[in-house]
Design goal:
This protein has a single domain, classed as Rossmann fold (3-Layer(aba) Sandwich), CATH 3.40.50. 48% of the residues lie in helices and 16% in strands. It is built from six helices and four strands. The longest helix has 22 residues. The model has no long low-confidence stretch (mean pLDDT 89).
Length: 174
C-alpha cells in the first residue's frame, strides 16, 4: 500500500436515462447516484488522507451540468453533485496545500457513450480527452472544460433565461 499520492484522478461514471419521467424510476436513479456520487465519495475517503502538501486531486464530472437535458435526471444530478463536492473540496483542501481540479468533459468515445442513440456533438477520442485533461492538470487548473467549442456552446446556452431554455429543451425532447 502507498503511504501518499502525488496525483489522484477519480472518474466513476455510469449513465442510465429516465425514459418516462411520469413513472420516475427511483431504483435507476439510486444506481446512478451510488456509482457516480457515493463511489467517488468512498474513493475520496480512502485517498484524501494520503494527499500531502503539493499533491493534486481531480474529479471527473461532465459538461451536462451546465444545462438540464431531457432524460438526464439521474446522470445530470449525479454530476452536478460532483461539481459542488469538488469545488467545495478545492476550498477546504487549499489550506493543506492540495490542489483540486474539476474536470468537465463533453462526449468522449467510450463504451458508455457508444450506448447513446442520439447525436453527440463534439465527440472526441479518449486520446484527445486524455491530452486535454493532462494539459489542464499540468497547469493545475481549478476547472478543466473540454472540448472548447462544445463547452462554449453549452456555457452560452446556459446564460439564456430559464424560460427560453426550457422551451428549447422541451422541443428537443419531443
Amino acid at each position: 500500500s502507498y503511504s501518499s499520492f502525488d496525483l489522484v484522478i477519480l472518474n466513476a461514471g455510469t449513465c442510465e436515462y429516465i425514459d418516462d419521467a411520469k413513472n420516475f424510476d427511483a431504483k435507476l436513479f439510486k444506481r446512478v447516484i451510488d456509482t457516480n456520487v457515493l463511489g467517488t465519495s468512498n474513493c475520496l475517503a480512502a485517498t484524501i488522507p494520503k494527499l500531502n502538501k503539493g499533491s493534486q486531486l481531480a474529479v471527473v464530472s461532465s459538461t451536462v451540468t451546465f444545462l438540464p437535458l431531457t432524460r438526464s435526471e439521474a446522470y445530470g444530478a449525479s454530476k452536478a453533485a460532483l461539481d459542488y463536492l469538488t469545488r467545495t473540496l478545492a476550498i477546504d483542501l487549499a489550506p493543506h496545500g492540495i490542489d483540486v481540479s474539476l474536470v468537465r468533459p463533453g462526449f468522449v468515445e467510450t463504451p458508455l457513450t457508444d450506448k447513446n442513440t442520439f447525436k453527440m456533438p463534439g465527440r472526441i477520442s479518449v486520446e484527445q480527452a486524455s491530452k486535454m485533461m493532462r494539459s489542464g492538470l499540468g497547469k493545475r487548473k481549478k476547472i478543466i472544460n473540454f472540448p472548447f467549442i462544445f463547452h462554449a456552446v453549452l456555457k452560452t446556452l446556459s446564460l439564456l433565461p430559464n424560460t427560453i431554455w426550457h422551451r428549447i429543451a422541451v422541443k428537443m425532447g419531443a
